[in-house]
Amino acid sequence: MKPIPFNKPFLAGQELHYIRQAVAQGKLSGNGEFTQLCQRFFQQRYGIPKALLTTSATTALEMAALLLDLHPGDEVIMPSFTFTSTANAFVLRGARIVFADSYLGNPNLDISQLASLITPRTKAIVPVHYAGVACDMAPLLALAEEHGIWVIEDAAQAIEGYYLEKPLGAIGHLAAFSFHETKNVIAGEGGLLAINDERFAERAEILWEKGTNRAAFFRGEAARYQWIDVGSSFLPSELTAAYLWAQLEQITAIWEQRLQQWHRYATALQPLAEAGHCALPDIPAYATHNGHIFYLICRDTNERQALIQHLAEHQILAVFHYQTLHNSPFYHNLHDGRQLPHARRFAECLLRLPLYFELSETDQQRVIAAVNSFYKA
Question: I need a labelling partner for 143 at 20 to 30 A (CA). Which of 112, 205, 221, 253 fits?
Fold first, then answer.
């Protein structure tokens, strides 16, 4: 019996051909033909005014934090149930993180809590579209506008996800995407900063070019190539961009495949949820998701660990996900002491099942059968 991994990187089409093409063109250091193709794709497909390819979603978030010109003591609100990069980007700028709880049935930020967390020091809210499922953006944006607060979407998992008719990552003032090998569209590592508020566009490009006006200079818009702001090496190589472009060309096929796999799990495991053995993902009516993650919510931590072990005995790798950041070794002494019970429940009980582009129906049925046998036992 062959092992079924949790994730498997894949080739969708012309990745290796485009990498060879990039080498042949003699331009590997970034911001070449393939970088431009990827950026235009996001601008044209999702209506993003300016898109900048980055080495990761982490560095895209770090660019966003730089653009906000944060100072020590400024506050940024975000969910506790998220990856460390969401918080680190703003902690690096001296900001204080104010963590919010998840919904009872959904790992996303509970919008109803936001008003009580806003203070005169609040500079930004960072909604995370967990599993490619949209946060409730309309009330969030209304509250942010009322208080003059920036909205930065953590859309790392959200490519091809929608809030009503609006693409995720094209809604907030800024947004970050990820192309890590565990995502729907991959480049090994890689990310993208979406600049949806044109007030940030010119400076974003300068930060992206290590604090220089290099891009403007090569377009003939500046007389000299100079250091004019802070910045860093945020650009990925053309090899990364070439791999990514081949994936973006196949994005519809990737999206359709993952949704088919996601719905196969949902249909097959629904009887377990109806019997009260576990809970399945809750997709709000305003969200069109992208099939990024299929998870179960076990009844407690011990049950989750027992299910992980049961699946491992069947050569199937299933994993849990984030631990709450407000209670982490790094930040728990800085947290204000509020209990965030729903975030804690997801940290303790959420289990992700294998889901990747090349997961066959036969292997997926093996996973389904193993989950069913655990609960029936």
Answer: 205
